[in-house]
């Protein structure tokens, strides 16, 4: 049962595609994030936090429901979420907490009982139940219209594209450096979204509320404003990729290197990501770091508004990313991969009551997951988590109290059916339902299980870059067996239990659901 406390507020900042090893608060010389560093200094950095899936839709469905993907079954962005999975915003509304939304959740509603032509099914958007302040549309059209209007134009300028990605592609093809953004400083999308958050905070005089600020960056296109590029000397060099060795890790690794396009990093690039020349990879990595600085600048403005209006004393601030980014490693950009950089992400939580807390400004190394977001927020508001919630509140960890039975491994999965040109795919999947892996990772190993393909085992102590699959090495057979058993135990323990605590009785339905 949650600990009851006076109603307070939550500022939930969710960025898109930020790597775990570039987390603010770690003192990294190539990461320019002073605002988030300061937030970490008055809170805690979770150094082993994991998303449960990629891409955005599956990851965010887990954040919203507190359930693993094998339960909520959103395995891709366009896949609807069943209405019986109640989400964070619904629990907050029931408790009298206003759930404000800026950005997006990459959600599709349950289609049953609705017209298939309903505009809600034209593409992923904001989940129903939020009070939407400013939505980042899937095609960015509303942002583009705002930017044009702020430039004083009655409509699109001659030859100015309406499409977001086309603007970036044309900019590069016109001869601009790959790192440079075509956006006008002050009219970039991070500013547009942060402006809305500042307005909401200035107008909210009464608790309780939760403000979800969803920033699109550092998601590609990997191009940044000049002033942010100037702050970053450049990215650390990449280790040389041996194509044959990378492809030998697993058929999925070879498939992704073969099909992931360079345009996943920047729409102006042609060919495969795996074939990009080193100088282009370096430029893209530089732009990515500059986008982290851009996000930090806008978060600084939002946190300043929180202080200016006296809300910093009663607002829990959570900073997190939906999933990670490969950043040129393994010849890949984007989040579609079997390596932990896609699933391990940064998280910072600052509790305003923690001025004398032993974990203030600390790093928390316990394994935490996206399933923990919902119970953490509900706990903050004194709301009991629903029976189907698979996660646990992180507030005890912030207070320096670690439950003895805290998890010792993270579980994540990925459905890659859309990357396979035809089925059956020999050595990989017999049909679309087999184009999937589920992984379990602890301090020592990462094990990936495929229903129709051989498994993957990475020894993280000897191979932290995850370049060698040792699953078939006889010396590792006991590890494979143990990890497989742990994965099955986890799946059985966390099967959907939405109605399992409800009971029919002579007096009617009893229990919780």
TrEMBL record:
<keyword id="KW-0378">Hydrolase</keyword>
<feature type="domain" description="Sulfatase N-terminal">
    <location>
        <begin position="8"/>
        <end position="383"/>
    </location>
</feature>
<protein>
    <submittedName>
        <fullName>Sulfatase-like hydrolase/transferase</fullName>
    </submittedName>
</protein>
<dbReference type="Pfam" id="PF00884">
    <property type="entry name" value="Sulfatase"/>
</dbReference>
<dbReference type="InterPro" id="IPR017850">
    <property type="entry name" value="Alkaline_phosphatase_core_sf"/>
</dbReference>
<dbReference type="InterPro" id="IPR000917">
    <property type="entry name" value="Sulfatase_N"/>
</dbReference>
<keyword id="KW-0479">Metal-binding</keyword>
């Amino acid at each position: 049962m949650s600990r009851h406390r006076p109603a307070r507020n939550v500022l939930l900042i969710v960025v898109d595609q930020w790597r775990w090893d570039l987390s603010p608060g770690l003192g990294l010389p190539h990461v320019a994030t002073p605002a988030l560093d300061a937030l970490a200094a008055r809170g805690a950095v979770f150094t082993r936090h994991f998303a449960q899936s990629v891409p955005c839709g599956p990851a965010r469905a887990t954040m919203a429901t507190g359930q693993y993907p094998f339960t909520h079954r959103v395995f891709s962005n366009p896949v609807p979420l069943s209405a019986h999975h109640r989400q964070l915003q619904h629990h907050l509304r029931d408790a009298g907490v206003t759930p404000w939304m800026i950005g997006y959740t990459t959600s599709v509603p349950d289609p049953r009982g609705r017209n298939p032509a309903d505009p809600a099914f034209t593409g992923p958007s904001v989940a129903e139940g939020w009070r939407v302040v400013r939505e980042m549309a899937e095609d960015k059209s509303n942002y583009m219209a705002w930017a044009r209007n702020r430039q004083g134009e009655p409509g699109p300028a001659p030859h100015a594209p309406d499409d977001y990605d086309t603007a970036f592609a044309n900019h590069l093809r016109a001869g601009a450096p790959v790192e440079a953004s075509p956006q006008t400083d002050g009219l970039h999308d991070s500013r547009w979204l942060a402006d809305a958050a500042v307005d909401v905070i200035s107008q909210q005089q009464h608790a309780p509320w939760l403000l979800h600020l969803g920033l699109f960056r550092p998601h590609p296109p990997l191009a940044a404003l000049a002033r942010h590029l100037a702050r970053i000397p450049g990215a650390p060099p990449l280790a040389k990729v041996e194509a044959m060795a990378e492809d030998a890790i697993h058929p999925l690794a070879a498939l992704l290197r073969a099909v992931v396009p360079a345009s996943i990093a920047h729409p102006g690039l042609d060919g495969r990501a795996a074939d990009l020349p080193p100088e282009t990879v370096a430029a893209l990595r530089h732009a990515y770091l500059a986008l982290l600085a851009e996000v930090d600048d806008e978060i600084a403005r939002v946190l300043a508004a929180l202080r200016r209006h006296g809300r910093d004393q009663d607002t829990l601030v959570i900073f997190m990313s939906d999933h990670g980014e490969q950043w040129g490693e393994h010849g890949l950009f984007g989040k579609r991969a079997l390596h932990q950089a896609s699933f391990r992400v940064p998280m910072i939580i600052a509790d305003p009551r923690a001025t004398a807390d032993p974990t203030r400004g600390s790093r928390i190394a316990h394994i935490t997951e996206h399933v923990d977001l919902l119970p953490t927020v509900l706990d903050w508001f004194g709301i009991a988590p629903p029976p189907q919630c698979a996660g646990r509140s992180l507030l005890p960890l912030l207070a320096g109290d670690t439950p003895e039975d805290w998890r010792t491994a993270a579980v994540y999965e990925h459905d890659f059916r859309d990357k396979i040109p035809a089925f059956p795919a020999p050595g990989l999947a017999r049909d679309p339902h087999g184009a999937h892996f589920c992984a379990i990772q602890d301090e020592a190993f990462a094990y990936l299980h495929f229903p129709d393909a051989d498994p993957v085992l990475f020894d993280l102590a000897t191979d932290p870059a995850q370049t060698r699959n040792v699953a078939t090495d006889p010396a590792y057979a006991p590890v494979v067996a143990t990890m497989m058993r742990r994965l099955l135990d986890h799946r059985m323990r966390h099967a959907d239990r939405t109605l399992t605590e409800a009971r029919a009785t002579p007096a009617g339905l009893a229990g919780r659901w």
